[in-house]
Amino acid sequence: IIKAYKERYISLSKEYCINYILIMHNYGKEAGASIYHPHSQLMAIPVVSPYVQLELDGAEIYHRSNKHCVYCTIVEWEKEYKMRVVFENESFIAFCPFSSRASFEVSIVPKKHAPYFERISDDDKMALGKILQKSLSKIYKALNDPAYNFYIHTSPCDGKDYPHFHYHIEIIPRT
User: Fold this and answer.
1) Average pLDDT in the 65-82 region?
2) How far is 8 from 168, CA to CA, in rounded Å?
3) Would you tell me the crossing angle of helices 122-143 and 2-13 to the nearest 10 degrees?
4) What distance in Å separates the CA atoms of residue 41 and residue 43, rounded to the nearest whole number?
5) Choosing from 25, 37, 39, 68, which is the catalytic residue?
6) What 3-state class would DSSP assign to 46?
7) CA pair distance 173, 136, nearest whole angstrom
């Protein structure tokens, strides 16, 4: 599925009027799924969503002040203290964020700085698929198969450079 997301993203990003592509996955009625079976959606839009824009702005402010990526700082902290780590492999770390929007939220972040999801390597596609599967399995078991959404937040495809950002996946169980 990661391969399909990447291929579709690259195809849509070539459209002149597209500045942001949001990839999301819906599972269960409480997650807003209008279709019974689990499914993914890609929204290719001419503007960056306000939520993602807040992330971009915050990351840029942090980078200007600290000369370092905020997501890289978070990854280093999570790797060192392991207080909220759900699972990690050679390329990614999954953890429950310090300030979650929902109970049992999980973030999956590349361990190396990576602003653009669409530039993921073949090896990292496999590693991302494995950590996503492991994280969803843990949520499934711990919460008795809850509805959930996950979102891939990546740098916009508007032709600008975003060295301060770091793509990531947010998994939001609907408890």
Assistant:
1) 97
2) 17
3) 120
4) 7
5) 39
6) coil
7) 9
Quick one: 173 exposed, middle or buried, by C-beta within 10 A (0-12, 13-18, 19+)?
buried
* Contact indicator for 168, 107 with CB cutoff of 8 Å: yes
Give the integer Cα–Cα distance in Å for 21 and 31.
Answer: 20
Q: How far, in Å, are 5, 25, 125, 126 from residue 11 at the CA level?
A: 10, 19, 17, 21
Q: Is pLDDT at 35 greater than 90 in this prediction?
A: no
- To the query of whether residue 113 is one of the catalytic residues in this protein, the response is no
SS3 breakdown of the chain: % helix, strand, coil, rounded to 5?
40, 25, 35
Pairing of strands 147-153, 39-45: unpaired
Q: Is the pLDDT of residue 158 over 80?
A: yes
Question: Token pair of 153, please?
Answer: 């937040």
Phi, psi (deg, nearest 5) at residue 121? -80, 165
Half-sphere CA count of 114, side-chain side, radius 13 A: 23
